[in-house]
Amino acid sequence: MTRHSQALRAKTGLLLPQLMATTRRLWNSPRLNELYPEYLCMLHSSIRSTVPLMERAVARCRELADDDPVAQALVPYFTRHIREEQGHDEWLRQDLAAIGCDPDEPLRRLPTASVANLVGAQYYWIQHYHPACLLGHIAVLEGNPPSTELVPELMRRTGFPRTGFRTLERHAALDIKHRDELMRTLDEAPLTPELVTAIGLSALHSIDAANNALATVLDAHPAMTTANA
Fold this sequence. Notes:
Blueprint (H helix, E strand, L loop, with lengths): L3 H9 L3 H12 L4 H16 L2 H15 L4 H17 L2 H11 L6 H4 L4 H16 L5 H9 L7 H9 L7 H23 L4 H26 L11
C-alpha cells in the first residue's frame, strides 16, 4: 500500500523540476550579486508568514477537533513546528545586513502578488476547507533542502561573507529533520482520501507559486545596492 508521503512525493515530482530549474537560473545568473538581496527580500516576505500560518492552522484545528480526528492529530505537529520556525525571518534581515544592505528593506516593501498568491491560498484552505492543506505547502518549502555545497559556491561567485548566507546554511541542516518529521506526520495522521487530494493540490499550487516568485526575482531591477556591488 502506497504511503501518503510517497504519494505526495510522486505528485510534487511532476512540477519540482521546473522550480529547480528556475532556482539554478538564479544561482547561475551573472547578476547574482544584484539579485541575491532581492531574493532575500522575497524570501523574507514569504517566511514571515510561516508562524502566523501555523498559528491559524492550530486555531482552526482546535475549532474542528471535537469531531475531526485529523485536526486532533495535527495540533501537536503544528504547535511543535511553530517553536522551531520562530525567528527565521530575522535571520534574513541579518543576512541582508551582512552583505551591506538595509535589513529593514523587506519590512518597507509591498510584497509581490506572486508571494501573496503563494501564502494567501493557504489562509483560504486552512479557514474554508481544512488546515491539513498546510502540510502540502510545508512539504514544498522544507522538502528540498539546499545542498551543503551551495553556500561555499555562492560565496565564491558573489564575494559575500558566509554570514550573508546564514539562512541557506542553517536550512540545509534543519530542513532535513523537518522534512522527515513532516513525512512521518503524513503517514501517521488518519487522512481521508479527500484530504490526501487536498494536500497534493496545496503542494502543487505552492510549487507553481514559488516558481513564479523566483521568476519575479530574476526579472527584478534591483532597488538595493551592496557594499560589494
